[in-house]
Specification:
Layout lengths: L9 H8 L5 H14 L8 E3 L18 E5 L4 E7 L6 H14 L14 E7 L10 E4 L14 E7 L14 H9 L6 H7 L3 H12 L2 H46 L4 H8 L3 H9 L1
Parallel strand pairs: 3-4, 4-6
Antiparallel strand pairs: 1-2, 2-3, 5-6
Helix pairs in contact: 1-6, 4-5, 7-8, 8-9
Length: about 280
């Protein structure tokens, strides 16, 4: 049996959910999502950036998200994140605002602006709670009244799914377990709960057997891992720099209080030369 590719890879994710041939798969996933947030089901979805061969990850910095809109004009953006890009909250608001802003031209009536929905599927934990699906909207703090309904952000964290919690009913969790990579013996139960998952699974199996797709997948995985390593390295350097700055500030205060250089060196673990330079300054 061929080893399955990882559906959490954004290149593979877009092939499964973002192609014209699989619009019914995307529609079923979205309806499972919106059902949990109390919204009526969609009957039609229009892909604004459908997957084509040009989406192959030759351009390593491509953002392989899925943009769609409903028949009523509501915009939807879906992004899969295999690794933590950091500042996800600000990144999410930035991309949401771009989607909202670009609906109209300068001078157009603001009433033409339609609701925009961002769906982030994360392969890491981001929010300080145990829920695997969180929905954010604009609400007043004290009364809970809505400012308007135009902003909606879904955050789905695959790491918060219980490993062996195979559901007995339909719903979003079936889709998320498939994306997380639940073992194939459990696929039959998931498809009984969510029949359209069968087409998503068949697509993943087909892609996994295609040599060209596997090469593109490997290239994309290499880029994603390298980028994650770079981000982690930058974060570690930032933490280290912060520690050094804190030690220098402590040394300055100790010197101002009249402590000897030897004492400051011992307490802060800075070099004697660096402490001497701080005293001179």
């Amino acid at each position: 049996m061929v080893e399955l590719l990882d559906a959490r890879n954004d290149f593979i994710f877009k092939k499964i959910f973002g192609s014209e041939n699989n619009k019914d798969v995307l529609l079923a996933f979205l309806n499972s999502t919106f059902m949990e947030s109390g919204e009526p089901p969609l009957t039609e979805i229009i892909l604004m950036n459908p997957y084509t061969d040009k989406d192959a990850p030759a351009e390593k910095q491509s953002i392989l998200d899925i943009k769609a809109k409903t028949a009523e004009g509501k915009r939807i953006n879906i992004e899969m994140q295999l690794f933590n890009p950091y500042n996800m909250e600000k990144r999410t608001l930035f991309y949401w605002s771009e989607m909202y802003y670009h609906q109209i031209q300068k001078g157009d009536d603001y009433s033409q602006l339609k609701k925009c929905v961002t769906i982030n599927i994360l392969n890491y934990s981001c929010l300080p709670n145990d829920r695997h699906h969180n929905v954010f909207r604009l609400r007043e703090d004290h009364t809970g009244i809505s400012l308007n309904n135009d902003l909606e952000i879904h955050v789905m964290e695959l790491t918060k799914l219980e490993e062996k919690a195979i559901p007995l009913t339909g719903g979003l969790i079936n889709w998320l377990l498939f994306l997380k990579g639940v073992e194939q013996p459990n696929w039959e139960v998931l498809t009984m709960n969510e029949p359209m998952l069968k087409k998503a699974m068949d697509t993943l199996e087909f892609l996994s057997q295609d040599a060209a797709t596997r090469m593109e997948y490997d290239a994309r995985m290499k880029y994603l891992r390298d980028e994650a390593s770079r981000m982690n390295g930058a974060k570690a350097e930032g933490i280290a720099e912060g520690v050094i700055l804190e030690k220098r500030e402590t040394a300055r205060k100790l010197l101002e209080l009249g402590h000897e250089v030897d004492f400051v060196v011992k307490l802060t673990e800075l070099s004697e030369q660096e402490v001497q330079n701080l005293r001179k300054n």
